[in-house]
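Email to the structure team, subject: ABC transporter ATP-binding protein model.

Hi all, the expression group asked for a predicted structure before they design truncation constructs. Nothing fancy, just the tokens so they can compare against earlier work. One-line instruction: predict ABC transporter ATP-binding protein, return tokens.
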Amino acid sequence: MTAREEAVLDVEGLRMRYGSTEVLRDVTLRVHHGEVVCLLGPNGAGKTTTLEILEGFRMRSAGRVEVLGTDPAHADERWRARIGVVLQSWRDHGRWRVRELLTHLGRYYAPYSSGEISRPWDADELIAAVGLTPHAQKKVRMLSGGQRRRLDVAIGLVGRPELLFLDEPTAGLDPVARREFHELVEGLAAQRHTTIVLTTHDLSEAEKLANRIMVLDGGRIIADGTAADLARRIAGEDQVRWTLEGRRHEHTTTESTRFVRELFERHGDGISDLEVRRASLEDTYLTLVRRAESGESTDAHAAESDNESYEVVR
Ligand SMILES: Nc1ncnc2c1ncn2[C@@H]1O[C@H](COP(=O)(O)OP(=O)(O)OP(=O)(O)O)[C@@H](O)[C@H]1O
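Reply from the structure team: attached below.
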């Protein structure tokens, strides 16, 4: 098996209890090299707890956890240097200047360069990558909330991590900063050196960034797949609408691409005003969480697409 095929995260039967409250009951998941995975779930579902266990910041109650081939509960500094973490909020470092802080933190990673990865990320390049160049000489406490969040992301990236955890990274960012952050993540993902696990409550962000979405609820992963997979399997079907010979038509299908291709094969230029409405991730997510909370089955893998015919509705 090559390094790229190995699981970067391999978790089985993870349980976590705070006192008498069981937060994680049986979390099982795998993430492979180069994936961008988004963990969704309602407030209090245990997303941060899961990330903290994977990051080695919190001891689990039970289960098997391997991160980059190592149990985080027994990991060393070399392992830690391969991981980047952006927590929900940092309150430290207020008196440091941005560039000075990143240069300082970067020094920790220098001994952990490998043949493939030169560590740390050059401070000025990194500051430019997160859009903080005009603020490089500012004290951290003088930054706005959004600028502070960009710095948090830079702190997570300074060691050129192979695995990056981002806990609600865009909370508090304005639309421009959010877009720039998305471009940054897409750039990292395109290079495929960094596997990314993020949490968010912004479903459009999850849909945009993630190759794969996992939904955590009731202490378990209740769905796991691409946004399109989940939408098809859980929320149902796409609606296709079109006009032919002056009449409006509508058809519901789980395979809209195939349906539209066949429609054009049959009617070619006769088709106009074509619209395809896919079930959104929001539709899917709300259905999943509602089902989980009412005790219905939510097994995303078990639900198969409905059989359907490809007749054109006239
Ligand atoms: N240190 C702690 N001690 C006791 N209970 C805790 C602790 N940390 C978290 N919890 C509880 O565990 C549950 C899961 O919390 P967690 O922060 O992991 O959820 P989350 O999915 O990240 O939520 P959010 O979306 O609101 O950030 C919550 O009920 C929370 O109150």
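Residues 232-279 form one domain. The first strand starts at residue 7 and ends at 18. Ping us if the truncation boundaries need rechecking.
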